[in-house]
Design brief:
alpha/beta, about 20% strand, binds ligand C2E, binds magnesium ion, Diguanylate cyclase (GGDEF)-like protein
Length: about 280
């Protein structure tokens, strides 16, 4: 009976996989159209200075308004974009649009953070493209931060070379989701990073789970010793914000302060500010 059960589970599993694979192929085809037809747009999540509650900048996050499925989240299409190569035109849209928006918000003195996939970094001419986008929008490179993950740059000489090129034109570099992938501390020596973003998985239990707090502490100390900015991602409670500030995280990001917002809603947040009691009460 156990064997039968095993077999039927296996059948159910492959059927589900089949659906998911077909689904992926279908989405890849539609993604090309989405890029051309303007179904992609950006939302912006504030990055808050934990010491003061001031909005220091934001992270641009892509969204897909699918004509049938409605809002599709990046975790569902970025992997498809990467494997199909569509990440290159998609990333080009994200870079142009986010820098254009940042230039419009120039008087607020915000930093703009943009996620870039490994495939984009390896694209010849990527550094020149970033330089051209900055020039076109008259936006200072020092206010742009490119976010990459550990896996995007791990043992990839071309990607690392691109990071050096970006630093050379004055762009800042953040190591995103720090601590989750094949964390190689060697990356901190070979890549010219300026910021570490502690992954949300360590923030989640930072006030209750001793081991998570220990990792968060060690990452803050390391960032400080290496003269890197430290950002904690996924802050959802005031207790987490206070604790992380105490550990040395200068910046924080998370639903506590705000969900990612449309440009109009972000402007309203800029006017009203983030309520200080979220951190200080
Ligand atoms: P990420 O770069 O680590 O972005 C942070 C993600 O965490 C965002 O999800 C954000 O909405 C979510 N988040 C922020 N605060 C909280 C919180 O307090 N609690 C929880 N539970 N989640 C929070 P999103 O927008 O769904 O993006 C997911 C990932 O997709 C991003 O992770 C990034 O790796 C990728 N991504 C998004 N936009 C782009 C893009 O334009 N290009 C590339 N290459 N990747 C992108
Ligand atoms: Mg990011
Ligand atoms: Mg992240
Ligand atoms: Mg993440």
């Amino acid at each position: 009976a156990a064997k039968d059960r095993g077999k039927s589970n296996w059948v159910a599993y492959t059927r589900e996989m089949g659906v998911r694979i077909r689904d992926g192929a279908e989405l890849a085809g539609q993604l090309r159209e989405a890029i051309d037809e303007g179904q992609l747009h950006l939302v912006y999540q504030p990055v808050v200075r934990l010491g003061t509650g001031e909005i220091a900048g934001c992270e641009a996050l892509v969204r897909w308004r699918h004509p049938v499925r409605g809002q599709v989240h990046p975790t569902d299409f970025i992997p498809i974009a990467e494997s199909s190569g569509l990440i290159v035109p998609l990333g080009r849209f994200v870079l142009r649009e986010s820098v254009r928006q940042a230039a419009r918000w120039r008087k607020h003195d915000l930093r703009m953070n943009v996620n870039v996939a490994g495939r984009q970094l390896r694209e010849p001419g990527f550094v020149n493209e970033v330089a051209a986008v900055l020039t076109t929008s008259h936006y200072p490179p020092e206010l742009l931060t490119i976010e990459v993950t550990e896996t995007a740059v791990l043992s990839d000489d071309e990607a690392i070379e691109a990071l050096h090129g970006l630093r050379a034109i004055g762009v800042n570099l953040a190591l995103d989701d720090f601590g989750t992938a094949a964390s190689s501390l060697g990356l901190l020596l070979t890549c010219p990073m300026t910021t570490l973003k502690l992954d949300r998985s360590f923030v989640e239990g930072v006030t209750t789970v001793t081991r998570q707090a220990a990792v968060a502490t060690a990452v803050a100390q390391m960032a400080n010793a290496l003269d890197l900015n430290a950002v904690a991602e996924g802050i959802e409670t005031p207790e987490q914000a206070r604790l992380l500030r105490g550990l040395g995280y200068e910046f924080g990001q998370g639903f506590l302060f705000s969900r990612p917002l449309t440009p109009a809603d972000f402007e309203e947040l800029l006017l009203n500010g983030v309520p200080g009691e979220l951190i200080f009460s």
